[in-house]
Amino acid sequence: MAKHVVAAVGEIPPGGRKVVVVERREIGVFNVDGELFALRHRCPHQGGPLCEGHLLRGVESSGPGDYRYGPDLLVACPWHGWEFDLRTGRSWFDPARTRVRPYPVELAPGAALVEGPYVVDTFPVSVEEDYVVVEVDP
Length: 138
Hints:
138 residues, mainly beta, Rieske Iron-sulfur Protein, four-stranded antiparallel sheet, three-stranded antiparallel sheet, 1 helix
């Protein structure tokens, strides 16, 4: 998988998101409480702008009257409300058959992104920010 710098860390604050184009694919990158996720920005139902939808948490219950938020993080398509897991891309209603493509996301220090395999005359350089990097199959 090729890695692509898609944003500086400060561009996607906790609770934020950014839709980027990588190799002709629209991908939504989410920051949920400091954890990063990336999904294809296209709902499989009717092609809606999935990553513009509401972020939700799954609800768990051990019985009537007992409801609490679970660990599942979901995004609901703004067109028809189809919900997908941010971690896996699987749908909430039919996880075995309906899903969107998730992409690996990582934080990479700016210094690691400027290193290369060749040696030439060098000058002092400082990198002051970290960047969000998304991996995409060619």
